[in-house]
Specification:
mainly alpha
Length: about 55
């Protein structure tokens, strides 16, 4: 169940466009592109660990 959730989150983050990140950055006044890349990388790492564990 966790592995599936991580895969879904990873897919969702990968589908985000730079336009969406730019809009979030303007609306919320923070660097959304960097946050998206950082969280995407962490989720990818966790997903890979679950894939390799079982």
């Amino acid at each position: 169940m966790i592995k599936t959730a991580l895969q879904e989150i990873e897919t969702f983050l990968a589908k985000q466009t730079s336009r969406a990140a730019d809009a979030a950055a303007r609306d919320r006044n923070f660097d959304a592109s960097t946050a998206l890349r950082w969280h995407g990388a962490r989720i990818s790492e966790l997903h890979a660990r679950f894939c390799n564990a079982g």
